[in-house]
Backbone:
């Protein structure tokens, strides 16, 4: 019988596994069998591959043990998120953040990391209407400013004037909102 | 589709072959990661919190169904058997991560299966929309429409500088992952695929083979997706990916042209042999099926073969997954031999049905 994997060499290792995924038989040559540290097939092997990205990140996060001391945090008391109780140590181990509040709690540790992953730590995409607050307005104003600049450069002054008026209106709205926000 | 139909069917509209660049691009997918404000992410939430998240998302569904103008089927994952879970994973409707801990997890799937909401995966909510061929704009628009409705009713975790907050820092910002599924036999055969995979990281993209056993990729199927999510707008991310895919598609076509020119007879022989094997073989393993299928698809795209219609590819691709075979046989305890026999039978049936349709 030839090896199931390479189909070239004689199979010398025969495995039958009955597990949650059903019964699987595998006939392998010595060389292919040594590749299976433990018996992994199909979706399991796929999962192992998917995990590796996280593993890599985990390695990336947990690099500098000394770093915490550099940041002036006493090494004995671990900073924990007040909302979900995650510590930075937990994050290092799992590579996953605990809750939305964690991003505020661990901002100083996370920001350099984000720059390493994304090359940036400032969002410039979609903003939710409710949670985004005044950010939507600010974003719109900065977009309009760019357009205004463009139309001035192209000497389209009528267009530019329209943009200017829009910006003024939005700025007024923003000021009113921010003023209102301070009252609470 | 109902739950039973979703589990049984091997035909999905987003694997059809009507669309842009379907000779190379199989499908396009958009995934948005969203979380509810202040609630611990699923990895740290307790069961009552997970249940509450699910309830809140379900509460928004009527509005989403109305806006998308179709029904959604909510599948509670804890009610499924492990086999049924792997069927959904193999059909690429849910991610392996969602199936891993099924308690309080839910997949909400639209009637046309183009939109899937995964509840309590790594993030509270993953909105996933897909389309056939090279088409990122439509699924993006659909995902944003769903997202708009959700954020109008629920408080979403968002930070002014960091954007949408996600469980994995690699999704932070836009929370957007755009994925294009490609069939690249030309580049694989002319040994150019490695250079493409090598260049991708420099463009902030990742290229992965779709089916691989760790050592070798089968079936010349690849997915390419954006890696960077923070610091770019959704449009910039999509444009970057689109440019790269357009480039890859052009290279793939060039490689196929060269193959068809210099190795015409060998290519034609390979295509027809593969078709013959799929059509008449009595035992097929998963890997071999993928490889044969790849040649048949290439033959169909190059018009070397006209026996079946091109839609047969997607149907065989899904129907020949081991989990689907086991599900249809209603048994997880099939031996490898039995599985391969049933797989060959299934492939023969699908191809026969498609060649009849052809006339």
Residues:
């Amino acid at each position: 019988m030839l090896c199931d994997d390479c189909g070239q060499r004689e199979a010398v290792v025969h495995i039958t596994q009955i597990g949650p995924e059903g019964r699987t038989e595998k006939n392998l040559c010595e060389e292919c069998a040594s590749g299976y540290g433990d018996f992994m097939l199909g979706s399991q092997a796929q999962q192992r591959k998917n995990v590796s990205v996280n593993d890599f990140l985990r390695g990336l996060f947990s690099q500098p043990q000394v770093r915490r001391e550099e940041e002036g945090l006493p090494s004995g008391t671990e900073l924990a998120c007040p909302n979900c109780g995650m510590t930075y140590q937990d994050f290092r181990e799992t590579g996953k953040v605990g809750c939305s509040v964690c991003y505020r709690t661990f901002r100083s540790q996370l920001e350099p990391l984000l720059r390493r992953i994304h090359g940036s730590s400032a969002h410039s995409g979609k903003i939710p209407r409710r949670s985004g607050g005044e950010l939507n307005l600010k974003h719109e104003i900065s977009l309009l400013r760019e357009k205004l600049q463009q139309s001035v450069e192209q000497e389209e002054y009528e267009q530019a004037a329209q943009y200017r008026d829009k910006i003024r209106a939005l700025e007024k709205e923003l000021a009113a909102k921010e003023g209102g926000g301070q009252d609470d | 589709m109902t739950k039973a139909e979703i589990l049984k069917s091997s035909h999905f509209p987003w694997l059809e072959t009507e669309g842009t660049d379907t000779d190379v691009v199989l499908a396009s997918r958009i995934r948005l990661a969203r979380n509810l404000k202040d609630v611990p992410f699923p990895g740290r939430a307790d069961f009552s919190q997970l249940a509450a998240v699910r309830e809140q998302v379900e509460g928004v569904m009527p509005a989403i169904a109305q806006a998308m103008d179709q029904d959604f089927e909510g599948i509670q994952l804890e009610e499924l058997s492990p086999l049924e879970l792997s069927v959904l994973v193999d059909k690429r409707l849910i991610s392996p991560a969602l199936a891993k801990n099924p308690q309080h997890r839910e997949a909400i799937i639209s009637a046309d299966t183009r939109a899937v909401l995964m509840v309590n995966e790594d993030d509270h909510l993953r909105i996933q929309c897909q389309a056939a061929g090279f088409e990122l704009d439509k699924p993006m628009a659909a995902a944003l429409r769903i997202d708009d409705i959700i954020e109008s009713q629920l408080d979403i975790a968002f930070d002014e500088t960091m954007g949408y907050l996600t469980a994995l820092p690699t999704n932070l910002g836009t929370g957007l992952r755009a994925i294009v599924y490609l069939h690249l036999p030309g580049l694989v055969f002319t040994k150019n695929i490695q250079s493409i995979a090598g260049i991708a990281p420099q463009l902030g993209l990742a290229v992965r083979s779709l089916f691989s056993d760790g050592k070798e990729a089968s079936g010349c199927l690849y997915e390419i997706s954006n890696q960077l999510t923070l610091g770019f707008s959704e449009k910039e991310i999509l444009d970057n990916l689109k440019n790269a895919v357009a480039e890859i598609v052009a290279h793939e076509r060039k490689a196929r042209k060269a193959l068809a020119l210099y190795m015409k007879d060998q290519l034609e022989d390979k295509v027809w042999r593969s078709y013959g094997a799929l059509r008449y073989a009595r035992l097929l393993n998963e890997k071999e099926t993928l490889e044969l299928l790849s040649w048949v698809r290439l033959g169909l795209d190059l018009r070397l073969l006209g026996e079946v219609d091109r839609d047969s590819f997607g149907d065989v691709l899904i129907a020949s997954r081991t989990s689907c075979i086991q599900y249809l046989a209603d048994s997880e305890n099939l031996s490898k031999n039995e599985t391969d026999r049933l797989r060959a039978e299934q492939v023969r049936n699908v191809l026969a049905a498609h060649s009849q349709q052809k006339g």
